[in-house]
Amino acid sequence: MVNWCPELGTVLANDEIKNGFSERGGFPVEQKKMRQWSMRITAYAERLIKDLDKLDWSESIKETQKNWIGKSKGATINFQIPGLENKIEVFTTRPETIFGVSFIVLSPEHKLLKKVTTNKQKQKIEEYIAKASLRSERERTSEVKQVTGEFTGAYAIHPFTKKKLPIWTADYVLSSYGSGAIMSVPCGDQRDWLFATKFKITIINIFKDKDISKSAYTNKDAILNNSDFLNGITTKKAEQLAIKELAKNNYAEPKTQYKLRDAVFSRQRYWGEPFPVYYKGTLPYLLKNDKVVELPKIDNYLPTNDGEPPLARVSKEEWKTDFSGDRMEANTMPGWAGSSWYFLRYIDPLNTKEFVSKEKLNYWKNVDLYVGGAEHATGHLLYSRFWTKILYDLKYIPFEEPFKKMINQGMIQGNSRFVYKLKNESSSITKKHTIYFSKNIVEDINHRNSFSINEFKEKLINTTLYKADAQLLKKLHTQLEKHVFKTHVDINLVEGYELDIKAFKKSRKEYNNAEFVLENEKFKCSGAVEKMSKSYYNVQNPDTLVEKYGADTLRCYEMFLGPLEQHKPWDTKGITGVYSFLKKFWKLFHKEGKFNVSKGSPTPQELKTIHKTIKKTKEDIDRFSFNTPVSSFMICVNELTSLSCNNTEILSLLCIILSPYAPHVTEEMWSKMGNKNSISLAEFPEYKNEYILENKFKYPISFNGKMKFLLELPKTLSISDIEKEVLNNTKTIKLLQGKPHKKVIVVPNKIVNIVI
RNA sequence: GCCCGAGUGGUGGAAUUGGUAGACACGCAAGACUUAAAAUCUUGUGACCAUCUGGUCGUGCGGGUUCAAGUCCCGCCUCGGGUACCA
After folding, report:
1. For strand B, is any atom closer than 7 Å to the CB of A723?
2. Which of A58, A205, A243, A358 has the smallest number of CB atoms closer than 10 Å to its CB?
3. Inter-CA distances, A241 with A97, A237, A253, A352, Å
4. CA A243 – C1' B82 distance (Å)?
5. Is A35 exposed, middle or buried (0-12, 13-18, 19+ CB in 10 A)?
6. Which nt has its C1' nearest the CA of A258?
7. If phi over 0 gives left and psi between -120 and 50 gives alpha, with beta otherwise, what is residue A215?
8. pLDDT tens digits for A98-110?
9. How does residue A139 score in pLDDT terms, banded at 50, 70 and 90?
């Protein structure tokens, strides 16, 4: 079974589907039987979880991967069916609840379902199977609360009590997980509880002193009851005991189960790496030579009339590859075939002998820092780890993980605008004209009902709706929200929240006859912060900003906005601040518009300013805090401006540390100061502590933890001397008002706290 | 439901190991220059009280630990993201 998307004409991997729709395009996805290549990522499930501990990645991505792999420990237990050789195998994480089992459920796709069903129940079961197969993934996930199922008429035998357990089928049991069958313990599992309650199946309470009349008791801290040899034991201890006892009679064995499925590796597309595989009859063979298989030319990039992939259009002769079979594999590989290991090839892209040379591999090794989006957590970032492990196991590479450290940059969000559009009511007026309502008109009517129908009519005076029939008007007045829908409007047509009606009408043909219900002669839109996307019409084009302020300003501003990892809406309010900072920077190099710098030795003040900034910038960049250096640059330029500094030595250092943020203007100043090489080749300067160090420190003097005043003292002073100085200070005496102090805490070069 | 992350002035944010909360900007206000505007420069700007010196409160809410809490601990609330019939 694969996820088939008819609209895209291809199979999709699990991570490419969101809520039953394709992630790209949002088309419906259905289940289909198809012969496909797939990768046995499930064989690596354990290692993929275990090795997460070695990685310096965000907890949330690690968690997402862990959940996606979905490891659970438990046991498989076999239930016998009288009169049949087959046993029903179930997987459970709670074998200790074996005495609470009151029924067995098979998934509608289970291979034994039809076999066990009695003649009497046959028709009902077949109807249920048909109904379940028609339910799309979408329906199954959106109707979680709905309990459905059917009794097969058959019974299984409880391994210990030998009691008869009715066998049911229900689609809350998934065929693709575990063995596709469960033992139902209604007292300990909420879904089983709901099912048993709905179909009036016995609920056995095996938990001592726990109430299960309203819902199942799902915590694993109870003491067992009604459980034969497990009575009086806590659930945790009982687990192993139950497995042991079951195993004695070959009824059970311990088992670890994963949610992760094998990854489908075929795509019915043209653009993708072709497989080095050909067929003789129905049997596939691997191409023996190591030659690269090239995509053949094709007349049309569409599937064949029989629904075969595009490559099936190509005849044997049209392939550049020599192969001795009947036909080449027509599927191509998915995107992650390349994205899983490209970083290895990037090390050595021109190598024609091997995919990467050993020497280069040993030098570069795996990626030190990966900056990327968290949205790839269960796709690319998992596949890439899997792929790296395969290459490691095959001894092609000396490391098991592709990316040592990862930072997830935040998304820049868009500020969307919406208009309220009247649905096509069955009225001659609304069919001819599209009518839009200003935001507060809709909200006032629906939430506050602040104006009467006559006032409402007043608001319509400039629209064709004014002449509408009384019934329609009444409908709109009482429940406007039901008759309008919110739709995105291009942010370029909106100033703040006010719609530019003229521009809006012009923007599209179908808007030409649009009419607007205004408030205070203006049309207001509503807004929301969401993902920046073309389909939301909230995309900001940086070109106009670059034109107005320059690329350096934009670059600095993007950094200045806030921490790298944080999501935030795009807002250009503060960009002028960064712009004037760069202008001030430029002014340091110029006098009355002419380039003017001085040579000679810098003053101690100037040296202190620049070395302080180098230190701060270096430390901030080292901890990936890219926003805070911009403030330091601003402080530095402000200080150098007030020092009237135009010293080449100082300004050269400033240029280098600023160049990653403002590469253009710094490169220009750098070359004007006479440097032949690009500033991008200059070495990041070392700061010198001797220029920064002070011999005095301004101590904050606090009373009971509250800062009252500052006192400058030499750094060489001992703790007891500091205490003496502080206590003898007139301000201290004044604040103490003769009261005794309990304690004085002195933290050298940090703080003094007097406890009263 | 479960898992992860975040809540600091009017706004974006800073505070790195528990040690001066609000750096640096935006915005706003006043002033200088200008016929005027833009640009630029100067000053002020967390809230409340006070004529000044100053005082009280203040990092989502309620507790706690500590000489000292935005930072640590316990319990909540709100928002954002991920995930979901996984037995």
Report:
1. no
2. A358
3. 11, 7, 12, 60
4. 35
5. exposed
6. B86
7. beta
8. 999 999 999 988 9
9. low
**A396, A476 in Cβ contact below 8 A?**
no
Residues in CB range of A684: below 8 A, 6 or more apart: A618, A656, A657
| DSSP per-residue letters across A116-157 | H--GGGHHHHHHHHHHHHHS-HHHHHHTTT----EEEEEEEE
Is the per-residue pLDDT at A674 higher than 80? yes
Burial (CB < 10 A; 0-12, 13-18, 19+), residue A520, is exposed
Q: How far is the CA of A659 from the C1' of B61 (A)?
A: 45
All structural domains of chain A with their residue ranges: 1-35, 71-258, 413-536, 546-691, 695-755
Which positions of chain B lie under 7 Å from any protein Cβ?
3-5, 11-16, 19-21, 23-27, 39-41, 55-56, 67-69, 80-87
Long-range contacts of A466-472 (CB under 8 A, 24+ apart): A467/A429, A468/A427, A468/A429, A468/A430, A469/A427, A472/A425, A472/A427, A472/A429, A472/A430
Domain range A71-258, CATH architecture: Alpha-Beta Complex (3.90)
- If one counts every other C-beta atom within 10 angstroms of the C-beta of residue A544, the result is 10
In this structure, is the CB of residue A504 within 7 Å of any atom belonging to strand B?
A: no
What span, in angstroms and rounded, lies between the C-alpha atoms of A726 and A724?
5
pLDDT digit string (tens) for A239-263? 888 888 888 888 888 888 888 888 8
User: Over the stretch A285-301, which tens digit does the pLDDT of each residue have?
Assistant: 998 877 789 999 998 88
Superfamily of domain A546-691: Isoleucyl-tRNA Synthetase; Domain 1 (1.10.730.10)
Q: In whole angstroms, what is the distance from residue A143 CA to residue A162 CA?
A: 36
For domain A695-755, the question of CATH label 3.10.20.590 is answered with yes
Cα diameter, chain A: 105
Instruction: Report how far residue A618's alpha carbon sits from residue A655's, in angstroms, rounded to the nearest whole number.
Output: 14
Same fold, A71-258 and A695-755: no
Nucleotide nearest to A140 (CA to C1'): B85
Buried b (16+ CB within 10 A) or exposed e, A266-278: bbbbbebebbbbb
What is the CA A551 to C1' B41 distance in angstroms? 26
